[in-house]
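Design job #97: recover the sequence.
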């Protein structure tokens, strides 16, 4: 397959080298996964009520996460069996540090807190915010209802006057919002959440004018506007060493000339200020877009889309510029297109109105709006297209094609010397195999490989200025490669002719059984018509059903692969799928055919080829070599060697590679093997070649075999022996029994 080799990297602590960089487990960060990213298990003694001290036990905590205590609320409380406290691990410099635990009121739940927050005052708002944070600290357990309730609590708290001055309450609310963004994506699919999340994001914009708080999934930054401020630039740089956003990486700059070109900056937004009245500006950065559920743009990948929002109070903007530097797995995904959008609260969906896009090393946008910007991207899986066939493949398949043509012509022109059914069977087998080989060698490679097989992504290849292309709203983050009807047609034909080839091996197997093991019984009536309907009709039915069930307009990859023109076998995660047609429309039918052929092969070899007949005289017994050749001939014509293909499915690289070579050697030259065994070894073929090319003729040297003739009669009690010498003769044999007739 195509693809460049990334330089090796040496990762510590179970890190995995990918594209020349270490991908670390969550417990470790740093270029080589050498920095600790967790706080060890701990015990903290806390007063949970007046005069009652309790030891709270916490397991290892990842930096930026919360962990519940091993101690639970009493069974008779509202929060029975829920952790009585949570604790977080933060980083001070490079050192992970445990923070003081938050204690849960075991008799409070989200519903009770939601009813209290509406009438709460400054004295108890921190307790409500803290309890809400604790009750949402396990995102995997959050439901649509709990997300809705917690979001409403956060909205009510953030709308309280001067809430930004209560650092503890503000931090707890932001931690709650960050935890909601970690909830399962499926819980956000309900439409009744759209109004709640819209209210929350609007409130966050207002809150951002007066606060500076950073959590793992959300960051808020504010700054005052000076009279001489003409531009304001907000930038966020993800710390590649530590693996998450830090407040020191959020920066607001005034009067800058334009967007900065630092590739380490992942998100930046530039506001052009007009009518400045000493107001304030605020920014909100969301690490994913779960609060912005679109009805049009569907997300199928795990790639998170950041959303950045700006708000201004005491001034106006004449325009906004945004630049995103997306980070995604370049070894698996290829960026096809992007769209600059903002969240339209009127429709509760993304809109491209008033926005234009551009692309260089960044994905750039210009908009007339100031709120909730995002860049929607659509990716294509970076397929590892098959390399062009090697010369050895062309030679092997070319020889097979030549051998099959010679065999077919020989069988047709010498058909009078054998039964018509025998000629038809072998010619049909050779014809289906010939067409398969021709299509394989000329069409197996996908033509998309020429345009999309490069390691350089489209993102790196294209440079677009603003307005150079239409900024249209995308519908999905994953798209299939450009449709290639030719490749689909090739896959259909390969599917059909290879199934037909195996079907004809089974029919040859059945005929051998009838001719050799049931020799005294004639072939069934209309034998040729019957086998023709079976040999060509059943594969056509299988292919038609498979294509009809899996293929849809624009979804050709449900039927075929993209890497090369053959049946689909892998799912979106590149794992072998039981639902793909490769299994049930090819591997299973072929396995049944090979099993049938193998059973017939065993019967023939045991009962005919290798059977000892004591009634034969010594000079008529077959040589060991002839029996071996007869066995090989049956193996080839019945396709037994294709069983090696199933051994290639072994999930072990070295073993699979060995079987791949064996498979290619035996089956890539199957047509040549048939030609050698069933044509070149035929006495008729040798005779014809000698007649056409006398230079290749060999003088026949008779080999005289000593024989004895015994005469036994009632009138003679003595045995009369007549000894003679007779020359050996080679007789013409038909196709199926050419290597078997002298074995019976």
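Job complete. Output follows.
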């Amino acid at each position: 397959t195509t693809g460049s080799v990334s330089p090796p990297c040496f990762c510590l602590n179970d890190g995995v080298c990918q594209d020349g960089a270490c991908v670390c487990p969550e417990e470790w960060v740093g270029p080589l996964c050498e920095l600790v990213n967790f706080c060890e298990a701990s015990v903290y003694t806390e007063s949970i009520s007046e005069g009652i001290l309790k030891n709270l036990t916490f397991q290892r905590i990842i930096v930026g996460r919360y962990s519940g205590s091993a101690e639970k609320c009493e069974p008779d409380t509202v929060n029975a069996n829920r952790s009585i406290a949570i604790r977080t691990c933060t980083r001070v410099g490079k050192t992970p540090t445990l923070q003081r635990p938050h204690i849960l009121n075991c008799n409070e739940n989200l519903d009770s807190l939601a009813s209290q927050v509406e009438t709460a005052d400054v004295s108890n708002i921190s307790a409500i915010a803290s309890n809400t944070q604790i009750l949402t600290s396990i995102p995997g357990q959050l439901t649509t209802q709990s997300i809705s309730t917690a979001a409403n609590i956060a909205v009510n708290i953030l709308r309280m006057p001067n809430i930004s001055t209560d650092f503890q309450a503000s931090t707890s609310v932001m931690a709650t919002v960050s935890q909601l963004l970690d909830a399962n994506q499926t819980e956000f699919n309900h439409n009744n959440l759209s109004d709640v999340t819209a209210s929350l994001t609007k409130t966050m914009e207002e809150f951002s004018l007066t606060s500076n708080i950073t959590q793992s999934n959300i960051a808020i930054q504010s700054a005052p506007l000076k009279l001489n401020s003409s531009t304001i630039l907000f930038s966020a740089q993800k710390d590649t060493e530590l693996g998450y956003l830090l407040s020191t990486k959020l920066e607001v700059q005034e009067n800058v000339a334009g967007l900065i070109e630092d590739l380490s900056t992942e998100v930046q937004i530039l506001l052009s200020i007009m009518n400045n009245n000493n107001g304030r500006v605020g920014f909100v950065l969301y690490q994913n877009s779960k609060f912005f559920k679109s009805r049009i743009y569907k997300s199928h990948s795990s790639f998170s889309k950041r959303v950045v929002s700006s708000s201004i109070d005491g001034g106006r903007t004449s325009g906004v510029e945004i630049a995103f530097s997306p980070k995604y797995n370049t070894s698996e995904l290829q960026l096809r297109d992007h769209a600059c959008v903002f969240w339209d609260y009127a429709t509760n969906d993304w809109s491209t109105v008033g926005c234009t896009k551009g692309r260089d090393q960044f994905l750039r946008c210009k908009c007339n709006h100031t709120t909730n910007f995002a860049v929607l991207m659509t990716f294509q899986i970076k397929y590892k297209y098959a390399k062009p066939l090697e010369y050895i493949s062309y030679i092997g398949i070319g020889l097979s094609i030549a051998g099959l043509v010679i065999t077919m012509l020989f069988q047709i022109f010498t058909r009078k010397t054998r039964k018509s059914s025998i000629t038809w069977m072998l010619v049909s087998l050779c014809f289906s195999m010939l067409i398969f080989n021709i299509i394989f060698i000329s069409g197996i490679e996908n033509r998309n490989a020429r345009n999309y097989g490069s390691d350089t992504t489209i993102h790196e290849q294209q440079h677009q200025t603003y307005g150079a292309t239409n900024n249209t709203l995308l519908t999905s983050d994953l798209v299939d490669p450009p449709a290639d009807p030719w490749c689909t047609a090739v896959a259909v034909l390969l599917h059909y002719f290879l199934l037909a080839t195996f079907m004809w091996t089974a029919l040859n197997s059945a005929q051998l059984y009838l001719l050799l093991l049931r020799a005294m019984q004639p072939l069934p009536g209309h034998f040729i018509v019957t086998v023709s309907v079976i040999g060509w009709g059943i594969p056509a039915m299988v292919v038609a059903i498979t294509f009809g069930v899996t293929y849809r307009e624009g979804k050709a990859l449900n039927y075929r692969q993209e890497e090369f023109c053959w049946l689909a076998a892998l799912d979106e995660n590149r794992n072998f799928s039981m639902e793909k047609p490769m299994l049930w429309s090819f591997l299973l039918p072929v396995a049944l055919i090979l099993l049938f052929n193998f059973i017939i092969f065993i019967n023939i070899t045991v009962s005919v080829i290798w059977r000892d007949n004591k009634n034969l005289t010594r000079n008529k017994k077959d040589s060991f070599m002839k029996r071996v050749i007869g066995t090989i001939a049956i193996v080839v014509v019945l396709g037994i060697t294709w069983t090696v293909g199933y051994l290639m499915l072994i999930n072990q690289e070295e073993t699979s590679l060995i079987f791949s070579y064996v498979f290619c050697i035996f089956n890539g030259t199957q047509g040549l093997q048939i030609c050698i065994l069933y044509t070149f070894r035929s006495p008729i073929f040798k005779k014809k070649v000698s007649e056409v090319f006398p230079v290749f003729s060999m003088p026949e040297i008779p080999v005289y075999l000593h024989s004895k003739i015994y005469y036994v009669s009632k009138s003679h009690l003595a045995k009369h022996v007549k000894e003679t010498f007779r020359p050996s003769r080679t007789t013409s044999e038909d196709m199926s029994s050419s290597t078997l007739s002298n074995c019976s």
